[in-house]
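Reply to dn_fold:

You asked what the input looked like. This is it:
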Amino acid sequence: MSDLEYRSGSRGRFSRLAACLGCAALAACYTTDLGAQVVRGQVVDATTGVSVGTGFVVLLDEDSSEVARTLNASDGRFALNASGAGVYRLRSERIGYRAGVSPPFELMPDDTLELTLQVEVLPIRLAAVTVTGEDRCLLHPDTTAAMALAWEEARKALEAAAWTASWGGYWFRTQLYERELDVARLRLLRNETTEQSGLYRAPFASVDAETLAREGYVVRGDSAWVVYAPDVKVLLHPSFLDSHCFRIALGEWEGESRIGLAFEPLPDKKSADVAGTLWLSVESSELRRLDLRYSHLPGEMDDDRIGGTVYVMPTPAGAWIIREWQLRMPIVQRRWVRGVETMRWETSLEGFRDSGGEVFEVRSPGGITV
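and this is what came back:
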């Protein structure tokens, strides 16, 4: 990066110019506002200078850790708040395109920095990924180039969904249900349906990832088993990535070719855990769904029908939501049975409890149905 040039301007303002580095560049000027460290600007195509479509802009610190993220508008405009002065970088994330990262820049106390983030628009080519007979389940999803490519696109969507849920700026109308079925899943024993509306939040939340990695996904309570499902934050957590291995899978649904990033617990993991596949569209690189199942379940619960399916989608404004979900959990009965000489507890799978829902309407903060 070249030396920065400082030139005085009106009312004490300065202009700061930064040279291009790799696939991104910054051309910046900033003004000072009291009591804030703000980065704002626009994301544009490095070749044409035209603003890019809706996507996420992430503020990174010197250790490349995420400080803040926001959804830029359709004209590429964005604004981010920093926690304090320091050296930062910006990363542009759009589904289906390579991420663009800026050179480092310094944010002074009480600065408001105006930036133009130039990125090269390079489409992701998932269609080139193939599966061979030698594919193995490998620790961490960036071990091979193919897995790293699939994981990068899945990660973008998962982080976008987490941001959308934490921001809560969209109004939703959602239908929820809870059903109980017999052990054959043929007879419906109970069915309750409700409708909810309000600001969007994650439809289900798990306990923290480190607890799940340490204690497992199935825990015996005082009178029943408790089965946990991972939420978006768990799937992104380092403890999850470090305790599962990954491989590439291929499939097709509804006439669309899919590439899957399949995961399962490491071979030495003995406690109950989760396995599954993150399925992406080969054409658009968008994450479509998560198929979930369990491994190392207690004997009376060892049934491959226990699991779930979560469908995700982007809104036209660029935010990501969980559109539809179904979790299939066991109903386990525990009986005190008389043996030949002693009494003992006996447990058995008696049925299933399905819980899920579907989003029917989404409105923007301005009240427009999107």
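The chain has four helices and 23 strands.
Hope that clears it up.
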